[in-house]
Records
---
Amino acid sequence: MLNAVTAAPWEAERSGTGGQATADTARRRLVPGEPGRAGYRPLAVTGGEAHRVRDDLTRRDLRPGWRRGARPLLVLAQLSDTHVMDHQSPGRVELLDRFSDPDSPVREAVGIVATYRAQELFTHQVLEAMTQSVRELGRGPVTGAPIDFAVLTGDGTDNCQHNELRSLITLLDGGPVHPDSGDPGRYEGVSGPAVEDGRYWHPDSGCEDLPRMRFGFPSAPGVLDAVRQPFRAAGLGMPWYAVHGNHDNLLQGTVPAGGWLPRAVTGMAKVVTPPGNLEAASTISRLAECNIEALLGLADGKRIRVTPDPGRQPAAGAASVAEFFRTTGRPRGHGYSERNLRDGTAHYAFDHGVVRCIVLDTVNQHGGWEGSLDVVQLNWLIAELRACALRPVMLFSHHPLETLVNDRRPAGAPRRILAAEFLDVLLAHPCVIAWVNGHTHAHAVTAVRDDRAPGGFWQITTASHIDWPQQARVIELVAVPGGLAVGCTVIDSAAPARYPGGDRPVELAALARELALNDWQVRHLISADGGGGAGTAADRNVILPVEWPRAVITQ
């Protein structure tokens, strides 16, 4: 589906867009620098990445000078997979992540487990740096039009805990944030001196850990105290909308928070090192299948005592939706309505001018990290699309098309809607022009079409705030002579290019981004041109033409 990509020489036309130039990657990019000790790389500043026109969906060229006649219909900032995290919680299973390390004998069997990252200490500060960036940028880099609203496309929290959710909402609204839990007087997570396990990064202790000894990670004395200090969040300063992700509804993004799990999450014992006789591949496979009894196999591992904290209570489903009504931001409920509260649902729609925005809930409440839809939601969507036959529609969800493969359900439960059936519905309604999502932690832009039907749409997937490159995206829908176009621009956070030391949130966010670049499990995939979560140039700063108006399919 990816045809030739051609650079568009628009830099000379760019003027008067205002905002913070350093956030706009069409002006400046941050890329891996030269490796130092043990291959550890700082970030380097390089020239911007010009927008490219993608012709995969339509062969109709944009007319010369189209920007002068362009009329902005919608400008939004997309944040995704922020994973605001209580990194001291007993409900996390960091100890399983080591089985994805380069020297693990079961790495090939288990893949990337992603239950521990050195940079996970800083998720509050990373989101703060990104909200500052969006607020200061203020306008779309392509058109210069003001950003109308922001959308968080799921996995706002990491472990569906109430304290994580309250921090997330306050970070986006603005206000006092306290990124700590348990004992306010000391750090109680896996990176502290109480955990003598070399598989974890220990920034300010004498533990001879693998990250520092083998992979060149830095020491950072005092950082465990710095990340727990309260600060006042700037907030987005604009309306923002929420989308449910699997980590917002399931423990570790996979397991429903039922049975004895809530007691364990709020309790006093945290297992930090697996038992020596653990059958790792089998345990991880059983957890992926939502068998919570597999966690009992970890009980014989080394544990530490932590301070119980009722704030860690799981907040999933209806309880999660209800929290978005406790806000100082706009709109109240952040897209969710009284109908959602009444029905226990998390899908909704709203208008922005002529554009219909439809938000889907692709989380399977029965468990599993991949997505799907239920029949009730599909029927609602079909009715929405029929009513919008003559209007452009933008979809928002957490999971992209290729990950709608989760058919998990108990015996007798209604069937789940998977990728093939869902795609048929979308292609049968040419009003759908774009689908914005996250989940994969990687930038990707794909033209989705079927030659047997008119239309097709652009799938725009944006990387995460926790893994490299820790970026967001500004998306601009504009009316142009002869149709529509979607402008996509990747943006960086307000964190400086290099960690200068210090304990301000933007400074700690700079350290987090550097650590993400050097994640020892995946850093070999990343180059100055992209790779890993950065994708390719065709997935980042692009202009996506759309034929419009389109033929209406009568059914």
Note: The chain has one domain: 5-547.
---
Amino acid sequence: MTSRIRIFVVDDEKDLTDLLHYQLGKEGFEVKFSNNPFEALGKARDFNPELIILDVMMPDLDGFQLLRMIRSDNLLQKVPVIMLTAKSGVEHRIKGLEQGADDYLGKPFDSQELILRIRSILKRLADQSNDTNSRIMLGKLVLDEEDHSISIAGDKIDFTLTEFKLIHYFLKRKGRVQTRDNLLLGVWKFDTEVETRTVDVHIRRVRKKIADSGLEIETIRGVGYRLGEKIT
């Protein structure tokens, strides 16, 4: 029997976690949840999920704080995270993406949209696992798709799932200009209605992480971005 994809939900609203437990269960996922953010990390480690859905607005310990804990945890740091929030301001979305969220959805949300986003992220993971070209080397950077790692001058650097996908996309297209829409479609698999600010946030984060690699992501004004080797 094929094992089901495990999804862990963290939200202080029991009605919502009960609803997601039911709806995601109907889609064939194995779901566990926590209504207490202080217990969530331990429960998630025990469950070993393949994706986490995380609410932002929770008392005492909010979703941003919990996300930082997840990204610092040896067992959970690579698990993709979708954040939920009742606040519609773009600053919350940007903050979540900057701290390592892979996607963001505002409340109230349509359950089918959430399921589509879950499947999109899981498809990216599967695509990475099935890719036969295991290593890409450029400058001082080595990307190993087999163990999902990136090292610079021999030192391993932590990349989130989306950051890894983004730098991989650029490495495969070195020297070619990529528009924001191309990146959204190629990396996020979303249509062009998703905000292009999402791309800019991830570009900033990746630039910092590859600063010592001998590579740079150049901004082509009015067009997009291009990865190349630094000119010294």
Note: Residues 205 and 230 are 18 Å apart (CA to CA).
---
Amino acid sequence: MGMMRILDQLLQVQRGHLLAWGPVFLGLGIGVYFALPVEPGAATYASVAGLGVLCAVPALRPQAIGLLARAALLVVVGFNVAGVRAHLLEAPVLSYRYYGPVEGQLVHIDRSGRDHFRLTLDEVRLRNVPEDRTPAFVRLSVLADDRLPPVGARIATTAHLLPPQGPAEPGGFDFRRHAWFKQLGASGYTKVAVMMIEPADTRLSIARIRQNITSFLHQRLPGEVGAVAAAITTGDRSGVNQATLQDLRASNLAHLLAISGLHMGLVAGFVFGALRFGLCLIPALALRVNTKKIAAAVALVAASGYLALSGGNVATERAFIMVVVMFGAVLMDRRAISVRAVAVAAFLVLLRRPETLLSPGFQMSFAATAALVGIFAWVRDSGLTLGPSWLRPVTALMVASLVAGLATAPFGAAHFNTMSHYGLPANLLAVPVMGLIVVPAAIISLCLLPFGAEALPLGLLDAGLRWILWVAQSIADLPGAQRRVIQPDSTVLPLMAFGALIVLIWHGRLRWVGVIPVVTAFGLWTQASRPLVLVGTTGQLVGVLGPEGRALSRDKGQSFAARIWLENDGDVATQTEAFARWNATAAPRQKERTTVLPQEVHLDAFSIVHVTGRGAARLLRTCTSQEIVIATVDIAPAGPCEVFGPERLRRTGSLDIDGLGKITTASEMAGIRLWTGARTESGNQTEAYQRPGVRSLAALGSN
């Protein structure tokens, strides 16, 4: 009872500030759902629901027990919301490699990492595939350099399709989970022309308006300027090439390209400020009505239009919810910008799309917003000033850029393995131009477009975007503008976020206890280690970590896995450079008069034997207990070695082998989930989840 009394006193002091913890506990429940190794069945959901019922009555009490019960209820709600959404989005997934005709309606165009156009289709038809087993959405990379049909057209082509693939390494980003929540049942590529078999609907619609505006911007602002203008206006980034994207990332300006919180805030803020200023110029109106609420209502309408115009993607939807909360507070005479407003926005976003909790966009946008609100609230409440009145806008911008950069840097480094050294000066040079010139010019030009008077604002838009692109290129060209960062352990970001939330939300001296988990997280990050050996899902690519970095067994091909491995290592080498390390590390296992030989890498506790092709497989007749054989063809050498051929790798996925020879498979790490192809309700392990390779070579040799 003494502990409960102390806890009650601590929590009672926090009354009025506990709302911000709501999305934290909701997110905890969502995180528990995604962390489970086995898809929960009816019994699990019943148990969780029972826990919620037990917490319902004490949750009504005002004491600490009531607050703890409400927190538990939010965890239960988060768990169930994530599970329900995962089941509601269930859609057919292609179960084999497909080659043949593909037909569907074009709904989205973007670019792949290789700078190819990528088409997303719905209403898909595949040859000899029943309708109830046809994916809801299919994504194709177009290798042919042809003019693409407009969005909304029905197209046909011949393509290679694959089911969504698992992680490039055990515990890595699982594209299957990402695709599941997008109902993306297959992806692939086509090398032939894409034919339009039915034109797009010519009736006036949001999609048609977006397409017309995109085409207009590309025509009036040719080159990369028009492509970036279309990206920030309609969300169509298909015209932006990889070189521009790389410059923006290296200079920490990539956020200017994504329609998210900054753009939505600038659009709504510009409309709100311009309208309120204009109404105040009419004394008869300004003295009789609340111009602030009128401006807020119109700004909400403008934000809604921008949401529709930009395509309504997840990031834009998230930003729109935050704007709705902010202007809703204005209409209700509440403080518009506060930690509570951020908490309500996060709560609504997680209820709407619980899977976004795992996305970099959600984590970075709310980290930046919460940090900015917290810092400026502290400045306001402490009575500090940011210098003379004429200097405050500049000082506020510098503080905002510094705080947002520091808040998002750990998440960006963890997810993308990069850090920009000159992000602060780049943002100081580019963000004011975006807010003062680019966004107002874009809004005014679109408003004047029907009247043919858009020339002047378009000129300002062109000048502003050219400045931003010049800043991005100049910063990216500086020596050491960007560096690679090693992938942290999976506990680092949650621990860091938990500590930061305590510092931000808790009131009183105990808030500084949150510094401990933050410092601990950074300490764990500095001690992060990478797998000694990585094996790709097909066995064609093997990577061995050495003193000079990871050595890769191929100089080309399997480039996606190669890039992911090197990035997670914090390695700046290209695949070709990593292959040169392989030549210095590996040696032919035996001498034969052929150029195709099994390659062997000797490590302290074991050896890796890589067999590519049938010729090399015929040469490997025997093996020892201290060898792990990775083969691209079926092989059965005599001896007690561990063999991973194509069939076994299809079940296990990619492999992680540590210094003692312990093998961890991607299927083990991913578990039995909806997106891994599991359909079990009893919790029994399927063949894909069995651990055929998780044992040490020491144990293997003793058998």
Note: Residues 679-703 have pLDDT under 50 and may be disordered.
